[in-house]
Amino acid sequence: MNNKALEIPNILIVDDIGTNLAILTSIIKRAGYMPRLVYSAKQAISAIESKTPNLILLDISMPDIDGFDLCSMLKKKPSTREIPVIFISALNSTEDKVRGFQLGAVDYITKPFDEEEVILRINTHLKIYTMRKELEAYNRRLCKIINDQIRKVYEGQRAVLYAMAKLTVAKDATKKDHLERTGRNSKLLAMSMQLSPKFKDMISDSFIETIELAALLHDIGKISIPDHVLLKPAELNTQEREIVKTHARIGADTLREIYSYCDQNEYIRMAIEIAEHHHENWDGTGYPDGLSGTEIPLSARIVSIIDTYDGLISERCYRKALSHEKTMKIINEASGKKFDPDIVQVFNKIQHQINK
Q: What pTM does this model have?
């Protein structure tokens, strides 16, 4: 059995009159509890720091610090706020009682004491206090169980989405590293943007975590593009380019169908934005919807730069990889046209980290 369950509740009695202390000590012992006696508010504070009482019987009229002030002090501190306080006083005006309750006391007993009344009220408030503590402990355990289950669900969802992302490179193994870099560098760019005054209110820690995985699905729609177009070892003609452009809408529609079965999944929600709009241009000349400026979701604007950078510095079947310097020149020339100029500004600051 838990030792705490066997521990006898201790009750702190705070009163500067020895006779009152003696009477209350006798009552508390007969009730089966452990009395702890102090004569002043200062002694009470020291006693509470030494061992937290289960309940406090507090006199009002005391030298230096009176009971009202002590109660107010206890209720302001998180460590003592929940300890039930019962005022014991010869002051029996309605005004005094109201003030006591306003300060956070759970009860008010007037002198002279009636033993049965004191025991009844102590028993009642100890029971309430114990039940509240048990409820808090239960809620903490329940919260942990729920959080563990949520974590497992999200881990499962992440695993499925990651597996889906890998399907996009199944036809071309050389793109696997591109996929990994797109996720990692999108997260890095988002983290850097969070430090910028222009973006700090738009990018949360959750956004940063989500974009790393969601970015992996940016080209999920390419699964439906014929191999002779997708893997063509030469520049695409106009008709083939139009076929490739359909991957944005196809990818978004595929993810929307999944999202309809789990509409609380932030990874898929953001992945839809990215898949559909990472080829939109800041000046409105992109596809599939011709969105411009901030009409383009922030996540898609981030991935657009990362995807373009990685595509340019990577070797393709129809061209050699460009240098980091040449790639940065192209991106900066497209700032305000293809890319969000404010994001490009942040990208320039972390270009060497991205290049690594």
A: 0.61
